[in-house]
Amino acid sequence: MISPVRRSPARALIAAVLFLAIAAAATHARADRLDEAWKRGNEAYLHGDYATAVSAYESIDRGGLVASDLYFNLGNAYFRQGNLGRAIWAFERAAALDPDDDDVRYNLAQARKAVARHTLDKIEGADREPVWIRVVGFLSPSTETWLFVGIYLAFFAVLLIRRRASEDARGALGAGAAILGLGALLSGGLLVGRAALDRVPFGVVLPDAVAVKEGADVNYKTSFQLHAGLRVRLLDRDQDWLRIRLANGLEGWVRGQDIGRL
């Protein structure tokens, strides 16, 4: 049985307001279509018609409109359908657009737990990102930015105070400045790592199971199987096939339609 996801009425109302503000930037006719699809999707979701909700939200996505609330609602509808791979993809998109959204992070975690309960055979280390990615991704981008700014300003503030402090206090203030300087370097390193991570193309496995081939053709030998929701790195493309790499270093080819780009 699939666990519930969070979608409070207050959140739904806020989402609608934010979405309409974004849609207002489009042409009048297009904004009307988006507004109608958005309302249709929300109404269908609230009445348990998740197939209609998915169809409505997907039509907005195909229209090229990118918004965290769209992918949040789309992920919820996929989740209710039991389409866990696409639910994780949608929640990942929402998290990328709004990393500080607690509801998105909660629902993403619930979707991943649901996949774990349904997955029998797992590849060792396939879902464990490299250390540098885990370190960089531990905090949200906004938290990392404010952390760097705060430590950086504190460093110079301590240096300024030290210049006017008594001789007895300068030693302690100097040590404090050294610690803050080191902290500024480390937090600055996090920002550099975040910028590098943002340039790495990732995708999410959409079907419940995917056969990874040794080459870009269905006739190649199957190397291993992947489960829904697994996050993979995109390395190359050959027509309708993608070469992917897992967190544990394994590589192979899958059909492009089986991977949702992030």
Polypeptide structure, described:
This protein has 9 helices and 7 strands, in the order H-H-H-H-H-H-H-H-H-E-E-E-E-E-E-E. The protein is an alpha+beta fold and 262 residues long. It folds into 3 domains: 110 residues, Tetratricopeptide repeat domain (Serine Threonine Protein Phosphatase 5, Tetratricopeptide repeat, Alpha Horseshoe), CATH 1.25.40.10; 67 residues; 60 residues, SH3 type barrels (Roll), CATH 2.30.30.40. A 5-stranded antiparallel β-sheet has the order 6-5-4-1-7. A hairpin with a 5-residue loop joins strand 5 and strand 6. Helix 4 packs antiparallel against helix 5.
Task: Provide the descriptors you would attach to this structure in a database record.
alpha+beta; SH3 type barrels; 3 domains; Serine Threonine Protein Phosphatase 5, Tetratricopeptide repeat; 5-stranded antiparallel β-sheet; 59% helix; two-stranded antiparallel sheet; 262 residues; 9 helices
Summarize the structure.
With 262 residues, the protein is of the alpha+beta class. The chain has helices spanning 9-23, 28-46, 50-62, 68-81, 84-97, 102-118, 131-137, 141-164, 167-198, and strands at residues 202-205, 209-213, 222-227, 231-238, 241-245, 251-255, 259-261.
Whole-Å distance between the termini?
Answer: 27 Å
Main sheet characteristics: 5 strands, antiparallel
**Percent in strands:** 5-15%
Shape: globular
Q: What Rg do the Cα atoms give?
A: 23 Å
CATH architecture of the largest domain: Alpha Horseshoe
- CATH class (first level) name of the largest domain: Mainly Alpha
Adjacency order of strands in the biggest sheet? 6-5-4-1-7
- Mean pLDDT across the residues is 85
| Order of SSEs | HHHHHHHHHEEEEEEE
- CATH H-level name of the largest domain... which superfamily? Tetratricopeptide repeat domain
**How many domains is the backbone divided into?**
3
Topology, number of strands: 7
Tally of DSSP helical segments: 9
CATH topology of the largest domain: Serine Threonine Protein Phosphatase 5, Tetratricopeptide repeat
